[in-house]
Amino acid sequence: MVDAFCGTWKLVSSENFDEYMKALGVGFATRQVGNVTKPTLIISKEGDKVVQKTQSTFKNTEISFKLGEEFDETTVDDRHCKSTVVLDGDQLVHVQKWDGKETIFVREIKDGKMVMVRLFTVQYILKTVLVRTSWTINTTALYDIHKEYLINC
């Protein structure tokens, strides 16, 4: 349930955030501010909507959404996205799409802390990343699918 995520959360650590901002095209000065900013995230429910407020000395943002419904979002770095947030088991998955690009935020609660993994992808980069990270492909299953396709043609 989304209730597990409701509350006030303070950033205590972040890894590879500068690389993420570089990939987004965020300028040097803004990245420097972003790297030292420790925002507070407030998640609450108001009726059938989830409200997410991010507060920092740099900038404050707020989004309000219904789970599973697309909404317009302006990010802290002023990207205009079509976003969707869903609850997938114990994970809150937030997908932002803009200009053919996509960022996926996967939040989950571990040992009383909210852990968020942020994935930035562009379709052609995604394929490269899959290969370079040694993801295995079940070739037997692919062969069976291909064989079934040929039989049915």
Automatic annotation (TrEMBL):
InterPro entries: Calycin (IPR012674), Fatty_acid-bd (IPR000463), ILBP (IPR031259), Lipocln_cytosolic_FA-bd_dom (IPR000566). The keyword Transport applies. Keywords: Transport. Residues 7-24 form the Cytosolic fatty-acid binding proteins domain. PROSITE patterns: FABP. SUPFAM superfamilies: Lipocalins (SSF50814). GO terms for molecular function: lipid binding. The keyword rRNA processing does not apply. Belongs to the calycin superfamily. Fatty-acid binding protein (FABP) family. This is Fatty acid binding protein 7, brain, b.
